[in-house]
Amino acid sequence: MLKRTPLYETHLKLGGRMVPFAGWEMPVQYIGILEEHLAVRQKAGLFDVSHMGEIRVKGPNALNFLQRMTTNDVSKLEIGQSQYSTTLNEQGGIIDDLIVGRAGEEDFLIVSNASNVDKVFAWFKKNEIPGAEVVNESANWGEIALQGPVSQEILQKAVPIDLNKLPYFHFSETSLEGIPVIVSRTGYTGEDGFEILCSWDVTPKVWDVIMEKGKGFGLEPCGLGARNTLRLEMKYSLHGNDIDETTNPLEAGLGWVVKLQKGDFIGREVLLKVKEEGVKRKLVGFELKEQGVPREHYKVFKDGQEIGFVTSGAFSPSLKKGIGLAYVQVQFQAPGTEIDIQIRDKMVPAQIVETPFWKNGTAGRIKA
Question: Does residue 223 sit in the same domain as residue 292?
Fold first, then answer.
């Protein structure tokens, strides 16, 4: 049985086309992936992300525990601040990528991917230490993502806090038309936006309020299809495609969330060795030079020699061409390198390019 978010009935009323995703029944699109994608790039879009997992870590040893369980430096977080991070297995493979938020001196809220929350929770419980209590709160929370250049104007009509004072990767407990919520300036699209956490049962009300406030701003409900093309244009990794337990953060281009100098964490010794020896492959972005759509598992060639494989690919609505991510042998990683993508029985010319593909995103425009 597929699970359903608190917005299931809302999606049906809006004409959402429902598909299975990570054990959930989710909308892949409403009016169309292209239209929804461009709405987010130009105006605003609203996503149901209630399938994501929420794990709470509390206690006097919560910080020490998370320092060992994640790769980023949790000690740098102020109360009301969050960071992107990863949690690794003993071989340095990525169990999941996470958002770690500091809700209090001894209180942290971690958001994990829907498909991995049970795995992450089990991994945290297995390594739990005295003074750090780990609780899976996923069933308590609904989550909505409002994304796009005019998202602040829309949300400001519904919340009392001054959103100009909420920087990127910061969050605040507040209310939305009287409903208690956590508003976080984060997202998965490359545009300015907010992820709004609320109690599971009031999620439809929060959705309806935001949709009402968005009238006249071009706000569109958006599904998983646009979410995927938006994140791909930013080279944001998708767990299960671009990263998994067989990939390490250094080869995946996530070295910036690995703080080797902070002290011991699970997977650190492996990463130190990888850094010393050098990675053998690298996750790169590429653009097709002809018509076509690259898909995961397609093979990558250089001068007739197989050098890697595609992990994610799509037609880019913003750039009007096929784009993708691929692991290639490290000597071929440089932007400008000419490659071929095998699409069925045809070799389609492509070029490795600088990422992100989309260079005009508005995320991070409000600074601390």
Answer: no
Strand partners, 146: 46, 194
Q: Is residue 268 included in any domain, yes or no? A: no
Whether the Cβ atoms of residue 120 and residue 112 lie closer than 8 Å to each other: yes
25, part of any domain: yes
For residue 334, the enclosing domain spans: 280-353
220 and 305 share one domain: no
Of 248, 223, 253, nearest in space to 236 by CA: 253
Does 99 fall in a domain?
A: no
CB 235 within 8 A of CB 285: yes
193 and 324 part of one domain: no
**CA-to-CA dists, residue 147 to 41, 207, 214, 255, 360, angstroms:** 9, 13, 11, 26, 14
Mean pLDDT of 351-365: 96
Model confidence at 368, pLDDT cuts 50, 70, 90, reads low
Taking the complete model, does pTM exceed 0.85, yes or no? yes
Q: Give the N- to C-terminal CA distance of the chain in Å, as an integer.
A: 44
Predicted confidence at residue 231, as pLDDT, reads 98
Alpha-carbon distance of 301 to 282, in angstroms, equals 15
The answer to the question of residue 38 being in a domain is yes
Is the separation of the CB atoms in 249 and 59 below 8 Å?
no
Please, are residues 233 and 323 in contact by the beta-carbon 8 Å criterion? yes
213-266 pLDDT, tens digit each: 999 999 999 999 999 999 999 999 999 999 999 999 999 999 999 999 999 999
d(CA 96, CA 121): 11
Reference 217, options 43, 37, 46; nearest CA is: 43
With H, G, I as helix, E, B as strand and everything else as coil, classify residue 101. strand
pLDDT (average), residues 303-314: 98
Could you identify the residue written with the tokens 């767990």? Answer: 239
Provide the CATH number for the domain around residue 144: 3.30.1360.120
Are 150 and 222 in a shared domain? yes
What CATH number is attached to the domain comprising 297? 2.40.30.110
